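To assess whether ligand presence alters the predicted conformation, the chain was also submitted together with DOR. Input:
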Amino acid sequence: MSETFLLRGARILDPAQGYDAHGDLLIRDGRIYALGPDLAPTADAAVVTLPASWVLTPGFVDLHAHLREPGFEAKETIQSGAAAAARGGFTTICCMPNTQPVTDSAATIAYVRDRAKDAPARVRPIAAISKGEAGKELAEMAELAEAGAVAFSDDGRPVSSSRLMRSALAYAAPLGLPIVEHCQDEDLVGAGVMHEGAIATLLGLPGWPAAGEDVMLARDLALVRLTGAKYHAAHLSTAGAVALVRQAKREGLPVSAEVTPHHLLLTDAWVAGERSGPLADALAALGIAVPPGARYDTATKVNPPLRTTDDCAALLEGLRDGTIDAIATDHAPHTTVDKACEYADAAFGISGFETALASLLALVHAGRLELPTLVAALTVRPARAWNLDAGTLAPGAAADLTIFDPDEPWTVEPGRFASRGKNTPLAGLTLRGRVRQTWLGGRRVYDVGGEYPSF
Ligand code: DOR
């Protein structure tokens, strides 16, 4: 089989190089060889002609995903998660350590890396900050970095102890890796299961105030000022958090942040079955019907919770002005049993890889977000935030590509997901925009027209 491919005809969009034009891409031996208009095919090149309406970008980079292995293989495995990532256009995925055992040892990092060897996405493990994510004692951070961890996080839980967080930042600084915080003041959030506000009151569900996020982020920023260490705020969900990160960046602190598609697009009204907010507005503007959802749909239960239209607007503004570096899925697959129960008892999380791009494109179609900004937030911006070798089509880079049709409509059918987690609040909705092909190291690992094994 030829190892040289010439992909021609699509709009090539690589924000890392400021490239946005119809053109050709030459791939040789798994790497980008050349990019430009009208490249001459070399004798050995297999020519792949793509429609002019399709967009070709660097493979997407996800700083936040849960692959569940080891320990929770009924929810997801590294293979099924990576297959879902490939279907969503993600080629580099950073996986969280809240596994069983927790990824807090070099042996578990090695296990994850070994299981990911032949996966259809590059899997980059994030190691735990504290042993067992128990928040008491630091994990062996230098050893974890040596084993290949790309960041440290106790995600799913905050580091509640200020003293422990200070030590974690101090140890991470010389390693050059970020500390990733799940910003949540557990004392204040208590048993909250959805955003604290009128809808939680009407539904009789315990609320989770926005301040529960802002307080923890403010504390952490004070500790970043103290230590000078690299810090990344996971899944921002509040307007207050956006303002805090903006201020921290103005001060020059080494801070980065991410937002999920669901926090940008959905609101707490979805918990009541009322589908209001940016996604519903954008789909309505496109003439796509958004039927009401079910009340207490546990697919809407996520940590941090879906918030208000004002929070969505602040998050979008933060993404546009660069306060928020990256869009990360927080892909959190669960079994049906984990979700088919009362709202208060259901697991937190949304299976996000396979709907991320299409849901986000609604903002582009509605004229609320520029396509180059969206692509940058899925490629070069996350890669630069964490110094990952990914996110560009520059010659010499690995040929990791995402090719999508920005207009193709499709209906979300979780039963067809590659992910074992079918938990999405978008089930049954029609979205516009679809990943057509994903390439990893010069190999096509997903093609919407092709046949794929299920894992
Ligand atoms: O909704 C969530 N689910 N948020 C988290 O922080 C953890 C995740 C999980 O592991 O299920």
